[in-house]
Design goal:
By secondary structure, the chain is of the alpha/beta class. It has helices at residues 3-8, 29-66, 151-171, 183-192, 223-231, 240-258, 261-264, 267-279, 289-298, 331-342, 346-352; strands spanning 68-70, 97-105, 114-123, 130-134, 139-143, 147-150, 177-182, 196-200, 217-221, 282-284, 307-311, 314-320, 324-329. The chain has two domains: 3-63, no CATH class; 73-352, Aminopeptidase, CATH 3.40.630.190. The protein contains eleven helices and 13 strands. The strands form three sheets. Strands 1-10-7-2-3-4-11 form a seven-stranded mixed sheet, sandwiched between helices. A four-stranded mixed sheet has the order 6-5-13-12. It has a two-stranded antiparallel ribbon with strand order 8-9. 34% of the residues are buried. It holds the Pfam family LytR_cpsA_psr.
Length: 356
């Protein structure tokens, strides 16, 4: 509690108005009344603090109860060569932390589903900004033990460990932690904050967006509509690439709303958002709840303008007799991306590769 907070309740002595009049029969009654008021205020403060502590304890319990830990990282060592086969020079320090976020679209309890959202989040050693790199699901890559295929096939073949190994080999970096959620998590988080206002580069009709037509420009979306918004690709001009830009626009809109004064001053909204964000969350076994809290504290000053989005580099589109339509990897660009991530020099990379 600050000195200013203490001033709200007085220092414990009587105010000038409580001083007894000269010659009064009961000079101490006003002083006792002042003390009683002070005791009531202090008691209320204690009750509020107990309530807040209980609320924080409840949130901690919900997070612990909701989050599942699993073997999401590969046992294979990180690569020693980059996308062009050159030796990787990893700096002794200053290379930050890399998280892989996977949004899975499962079709049932026995179906792993598809990795429809693949985002690499880089937190620099000096976290004044965060870089998020979206990997299009149709990116045509080498998958260890499975030849070449779309990058989301790695998830279908071997879950998160194989997807991590594939991206590590592709970019030439080490992925430190993995987190997976499903599309119901996006829906629940959106409804928890009362919907989001998101910008669409292009529109699509209502049949493809939960009964709501999307117009070019700003759109107000509830959870069901936001879910359809991030899934749509068939009506978009560049298919999966356009969908990736939609997903990044949605993430930014959700971040803005979740960190807005309207949300952070509403305990019920915080509780609903925390529950929705962690209900279907699976993380690697090295990412403990305590570590998650530490990262949250480390990034507490990050604002939406500090979060930078990019798309993994590709040169165009093509066809493969097995994989179908594919996005062709820009090998040179991927090498530059790996160097920028390893050396905490993403600003230099983004100067060359324009963010969506």
């Amino acid at each position: 509690m600050t000195d200013q907070d203490l001033d709200l309740f007085g220092s414990g002595g009587a105010d000038a108005d409580d001083a007894p009049d000269e010659g009064a029969d009961e000079p101490r009654r006003p002083r006792r009344r002042g003390r009683r008021v002070l005791l009531v205020l202090v008691s209320l403060l204690v009750l509020v603090l107990v309530a807040v502590a209980g609320f924080v304890g409840y949130l901690g319990w919900r997070v612990n109860d909701n989050v599942t830990q699993a073997e999401l990282l590969p046992t294979a060592a990180p690569p020693t060569v980059d996308a062009e086969g050159d030796p990787i020079q990893v700096p002794a320090s200053g290379n930050g932390t890399n998280f892989l976020l996977v949004g899975a679209d499962s079709r049932g309890p026995n179906d792993r589903g598809r990795a429809d959202v693949i985002v690499l989040v880089h937190v620099p050693a000096d976290p004044t900004a965060i870089q998020m790199v979206h990997f299009p699901r149709d990116l045509y890559v080498s998958i260890p033990g499975h030849g070449k295929n779309k990058i989301n096939a790695a998830y279908a073949f071997g879950g998160e460990p194989l997807l991590v190994e594939t991206i590590q080999n592709l970019v030439g970096i080490k992925i430190d932690h993995v987190a997976r959620t499903d599309f119901d998590g996006f829906k629940g988080m959106t409804d928890a904050v009362g919907g989001v206002r998101v910008y669409a580069e292009e529109g699509n009709d209502a049949s493809g967006n939960g009964g709501k037509a999307i117009q070019k420009g700003w759109n107000e979306l509830n959870g069901e509509q936001a879910l359809a918004f991030v899934r749509e690709r068939y009506e978009l001009s560049e298919g999966d690439i356009s969908r990736g830009r939609r997903q990044m626009a949605f993430v930014k809109a959700l971040l803005l709303k979740a960190t807005s004064k309207q949300t952070i001053t509403n305990p019920l909204a915080i509780a609903r958002f925390t529950d929705a964000a962690t209900k279907n969350l699976v993380v690697d076994k090295g990412l403990s709840i305590g570590a998650m809290k530490d990262y949250a504290l480390l990034l507490r000053h990050i604002r939406s303008s500090d979060v930078v989005f990019a798309t993994a580099p590709f040169t165009g589109f093509g066809m493969d007799p097995v994989a179908g339509s594919i996005d062709i990897v820009d090998t040179k660009g991927m090498k530059l991306l790996g160097e920028a991530l390893r050396k905490d020099q993403m600003d230099d990379y983004l100067d060359v590769f324009v963010t969506p």
